[in-house]
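[step 3/7] inverse_fold.run input=structure_tokens len=191
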């Protein structure tokens, strides 16, 4: 299974022209590009990355594909998602995508951190609309990656209970201990 493709295939079911979406880790811009194509001109995609270089790469990619107009790219941390997203869009986000770890071909020391990731996820589940999706792709194979995976697993387990009414699914390759792990959290229609 190619997990980035799988994450996009699942996300596609939650998007339509005019949707609002968030790429919480822009990186090289592939997921932002995908989201911008799905929501079209009437839609909005927030793209966030801590690295200026990632936002520049994403901007160039979107411009070349003529998909930049519907994007709002921000250099910053996804732990500030609630301040980055316009208040009028809170609770109306159809999809939030997280593709964690480090920037491929970039500085491997700039990597997502468990505590910050959980802070961002807490905000994402508030921002997403009823029936919307939060997808999280995490990698146990790099230093600190397994710790992040374990934190997310515990946090995601709690989302199925109590006030946070999410349907949680987990995908991984059972034959590979270092397999990426994809979680999908779908918010209940009436929560
Ligand atoms: C695996 S890459 C994302 C790949 C991207 N989705 C794509 O399609 O190319 C992970 C990204 O997370 C970014 N990142 C790390 N910490 C972050 C934070 N606190 N807030 C936002 N982005 C962060 C890194 O800079 C890196 O670009």
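[step 3/7] decode complete -> sequence:
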């Amino acid at each position: 299974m190619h997990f980035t493709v799988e994450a996009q295939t699942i996300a596609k079911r939650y998007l339509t022209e005019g949707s609002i979406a968030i790429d919480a880790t822009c990186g090289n811009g592939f997921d932002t590009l995908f989201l911008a194509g799905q929501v079209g001109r009437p839609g909005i995609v927030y793209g966030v990355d801590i690295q200026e270089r990632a936002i520049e790469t994403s901007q160039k990619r979107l411009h070349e594909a003529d998909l930049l107009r519907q994007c709002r790219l921000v250099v910053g941390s996804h732990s500030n998602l609630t301040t980055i997203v316009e208040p009028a869009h809170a609770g109306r986000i159809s999809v939030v995508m997280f593709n964690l770890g480090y920037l491929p071909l970039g500085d491997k020391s700039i990597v997502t951190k468990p505590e910050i990731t959980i802070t961002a996820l807490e905000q994402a589940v508030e921002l997403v609309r009823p029936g919307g999706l939060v997808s999280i792709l995490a990698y146990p194979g790099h230093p600190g990656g397994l710790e992040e995976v374990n934190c997310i697993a515990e946090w995601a387990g709690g989302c199925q209970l109590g006030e946070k009414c999410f349907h949680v699914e987990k995908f991984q390759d059972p034959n590979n201990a270092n397999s990426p792990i994809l979680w999908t959290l779908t918010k209940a229609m009436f929560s």
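[step 4/7] annotate
The chain has one domain: 3-187.
The helical segments are 3-12, 30-39, 52-64, 81-84, 114-127, 145-159.
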